[in-house]
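User: Can you predict the 3D structure of Thiolase family protein? Sequence below.
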Amino acid sequence: MTRGPFDGRAVLTGAGKSQVGRRLGRTGLDLTLEAVQRAINDAGLSVDDIDGIASYPGPGMSDAGFSGANINDVRNALGLRSRWYISAMETAGQVGPVIEACMAVSLGLANHVVVFRSVWESTAAEQAGGRASVLYSGGRLPAHLEWVAPYGALSGANWLAMPAQRYMHEFGLTREHLGHIAINARTNAGRNPDAVYRQPMTMDDYLGARMVSEPLCLYDCDVPCDGATAVVVSRRDATAGLPRQPLTVESVGPGIFERATWDQRSDITTMAAHDSGVTLWENTSLSPADVDMAQLYDGFSFLTVVWLEALGFCERGKVGQFLDDPSHIALDGPLPLNTSGGQLSGGRLHGMGFLHEACIQMWGEGGDRQAPQTPEVVAVAVGGGPIAGSMLLSSQ
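Assistant: Sure. Here are the predicted structure tokens for Thiolase family protein:
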């Protein structure tokens, strides 16, 4: 088996998550430090062992609570001495800093890098009396809003509704197919004590929910929350004596080939997820048939459809046929999907929650939501609209 772009040198050795919930009333930094310290402890390391730090998206975001903490805030709070660090938004989605950390340890720039993502949007919005509109945040509109803002289409649901409608028109995808994704997420969330929404959902519940931006209803949209996740990326030859079985970063998919927009690609039904998928499989001898579990971004249910196709789990235009039998994605099915409840029911930890869940499942610590067969190869994918990133983890 080809060991991918890092030749087996980059591994995950620890994962941590803070308290997760709606309007917790805690600061983003507080949540971040909780997750980071848990990840370090989970790896069997001390703060003094950590010589690198990375995060997404970094400072400068106008949306209150979208970035819970900056890396220098965390460095200062923990007293980290960093040989390498980075935070950026123009990267391969929320796993971009993880990929960059893999590069750093593979090149010998660091031994152990802690990577975090934190949000506290629900508390920040409550404190601010609501979320600010991008139209009134000052300055020029970013280019990706050029063709939507004049028409009042200012939410992700608006932007995803257009490619979803087009995909339905071209390939026969139905709302019931999207409903299977949402119901699967809720079923898994019912087994996750940290999930935001755990009560059962039926197809009637899904179809009866209020429409947000046709064809996307309330249950097609993820739930904002407060929380933080972190992982430790280590250089393999620095892991001797650590308690965890290192998880090899077998491959990564950081590619982007077209415009980073929601609506100006040559085919709006593909989006950046397809670019990521191409580069993921170019970098490994593994194939989609080798994957035991998928943790795929579900900021909106249609993004999961795009990822199922982009990573080769379904042929082009055949996702609906795949979802006709929802047992395909069930916890005990051939491709368990979003086992924590994803963002649709587990809470919008914004990407890194999927990587955390992959680690937990591969270490056999999923509790009531643990897959019957502990996965050996897991695909993780985040983003998927204008930017995207994917990873392939292996315990082999």
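The longest helix spans residues 156-171. The two ends are 10 Å apart (CA to CA).
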